[in-house]
User: What shape does this take?
Amino acid sequence: MKVFKKMLILAIAIGMSGCEDVIDNVALDTAPPRLVIDASIDWEKGTAGNEQKIKLTTSTGYYNNTFPTVSGAVVNVANAAGSTFNFIEVAGTGEYICIDFLPVIGETYTLTIQLNGQTYSASETMMGVPDIASNIEQNNEGGMAGDEVEITYYYQDNPGQDNYYLHRIIIPEVAFPQFNVENDENTQGNLIPQFYSHEDLKAGDNVNIRLYGISRRFYEFFNKLKAATGNDDSPFPTTPTAVRGNITNLTDGASYPFGYFRLSEVQTRNYTIR
Assistant: This one.
């Protein structure tokens, strides 16, 4: 009987494969749009960090390729000393620019956005980051199977505190940046190696490495975001759900925005594959 059931399932599968139809744009329920706040303040080592950008869009339908921009907001960030940094929109773009921001490691900042009678707010601390060591290593027999080009870069963890890191890698073979987060729970105070490999890397390719210092709260948010999108390498898929960041709507708590207010010092290195 088990053999018969297997044969029946195989026959049904073969029959279905011969009559496939391409289904375009299945009708999906679309929730009302929410404000999406991209408020990542990145202070690259060696720069003044005075020029910063916050972008406002709204969520949109599944099949839409672009996100509607949001104009007309009043956007500012204040530090603990009471200094306020205004972000002014480049007309019609939804991009709000500040040219006099003052980044300070360990300083707490508060984001405030006023839009259509609603006030959104978040507070976060600017996190420092160690230098990426210049001795980046290359192994042409790396990866899980030993058939990929692999690089290893190093950075010194601060032994005096718990640290959290965001890694961003850009290579020519992948259209979008690749991100990963980690903590120093098992490596506190150590020189930490970070490995990256890709099967399509080849001689002459530039690997752009960015290391960010992040807060524990952002570390936890990012891991929840990975799980919600099915990119956490778990064999057990997570039910899709909205992941809320640290930005709240002070006027109407039910109408919360998407996004996160993050402040990070950033170290950048470029490596050319040999």
About this structure: Confidence is low (pLDDT under 50) at residues 1-19, 234-239.
